[in-house]
């Protein structure tokens, strides 16, 4: 809310909040829910300040979010009267290989895709006012109840895909094909695939390849690890592709300016040159630390074996020389 106020000022901020119709929440991790309650409360206040009758905010979320709102209600304030919930169903991804479901690297079943358009409250949903023709929730590969979203605009038919937190997800690629805009998480840098797999996130190259398979026209990478305080790594393949960029705080991306954003990457490289160099050196250090270190005992054994073999070879050479000398003397005699 402070950020919104800094960008637009109190009056414009109130108008923006009053024009907010719906919030889509991907999953229940705190970095995706913090600020929700302040948003709902400030939106209610905006209606009062503008002298408008209150219109409930539509909150599209899974049932784990309802647990958080219930806890908040018991401790602070019940926001149920201010929102209209739309529950996201999810399909439990069974593991047929005996691995814990969170470690499964398989594709969710087709039932993990939900057309939310028909579930939106009819008394509040307006395709024209919301500029929303349709929206799908796609279960992605993160927590058991995490979703990405595929939006289709009402006015011009543009398609916007938001991945949420996920590993590379073939189901999202399938339903987000030919997206006009793709916002994809990119938590880890290349070379940290093991960390990404364990935490069910994507590396930059994995997100890049997923966007390529999706044939997305404009791609914004976001959700970078906190180890990249100011700027994530910017490998050459991003610049060479020509339609990729990285999201930043306070960034606004109108549709008509989308081709401009990839041109910011060289600017970021120059602006954050020291940070990028420092991160690169840390990355090289991690790679060296991950390399297997030689075992001292094995090295000593190998060295001892080499010395022994060298001694045997020398003895053999001396013996051979003595035999040749004896044969020569016998011949001369």
From TrEMBL:
Its EC number is 3.1.26.11. GO terms for biological process: mitochondrial tRNA 3'-end processing. Gene3D superfamilies: Ribonuclease Z/Hydroxyacylglutathione hydrolase-like. Keywords: Endonuclease, Hydrolase, Metal-binding, Nuclease, tRNA processing, Zinc. InterPro entries: Metallo-B-lactamas (IPR001279), RibonucZ/Hydroxyglut_hydro (IPR036866), RNZ2-like (IPR047151). Its cofactor is Zn(2+). It comes from the Eukaryota. The keyword Nuclease applies. It catalyses: Endonucleolytic cleavage of RNA, removing extra 3' nucleotides from tRNA precursor, generating 3' termini of tRNAs. A 3'-hydroxy group is left at the tRNA terminus and a 5'-phosphoryl group is left at the trailer molecule. Pfam families: Lactamase_B_2. GO terms for molecular function: 3'-tRNA processing endoribonuclease activity; metal ion binding. Belongs to the RNase Z family. This is ribonuclease Z. It comes from Globodera pallida.
């Amino acid at each position: 809310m402070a950020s919104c106020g800094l960008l637009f000022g109190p009056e414009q901020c109130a108008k923006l909040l009053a024009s907010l119709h719906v919030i889509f929440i991907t999953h229940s991790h705190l970095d995706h829910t913090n600020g929700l309650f302040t948003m709902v409360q400030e939106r209610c206040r905006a209606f009062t300040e503008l002298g408008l009758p209150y219109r409930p905010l539509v909150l599209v979320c899974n049932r784990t979010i309802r647990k958080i709102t219930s806890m908040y209600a018991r401790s602070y304030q019940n926001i149920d009267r201010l929102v209209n919930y739309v529950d996201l169903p999810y399909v439990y991804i069974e593991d047929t290989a005996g691995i814990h479901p969170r470690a499964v690297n398989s594709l969710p079943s087709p039932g993990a895709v939900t057309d939310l358009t028909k579930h939106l409250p009819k008394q509040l949903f307006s395709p024209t006012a919301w500029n929303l023709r349709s929206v799908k929730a796609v279960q992605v590969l993160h927590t058991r109840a995490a979703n990405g979203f595929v939006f289709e605009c009402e006015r011009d038919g543009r398609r916007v895909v938001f991945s949420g937190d996920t590993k590379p997800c073939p189901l999202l690629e399938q339903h987000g094909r030919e997206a006009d805009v793709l916002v994809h998480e990119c938590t880890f840098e290349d070379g940290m695939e093991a960390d990404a797999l364990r935490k069910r996130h994507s590396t930059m190259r994995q997100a890049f390849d997923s966007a390529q398979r999706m044939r997305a026209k404009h791609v914004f990478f976001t959700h970078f690890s906190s180890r990249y305080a100011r700027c994530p790594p910017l490998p050459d393949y991003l610049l060479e592709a020509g339609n990729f960029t990285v999201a930043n705080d306070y960034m606004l991306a109108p549709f008509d300016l989308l081709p401009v954003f990839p041109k910011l990457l060289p600017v970021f490289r120059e602006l954050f040159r020291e940070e990028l160099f420092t991160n690169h050196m840390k990355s090289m250090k991690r790679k060296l630390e991950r390399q297997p270190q030689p075992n001292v005992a094995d090295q000593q054994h190998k060295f001892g074996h080499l010395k022994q073999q060298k001694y045997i070879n020398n003895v053999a050479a001396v013996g051979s020389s003595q035999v040749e000398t004896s044969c020569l003397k016998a011949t001369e005699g």
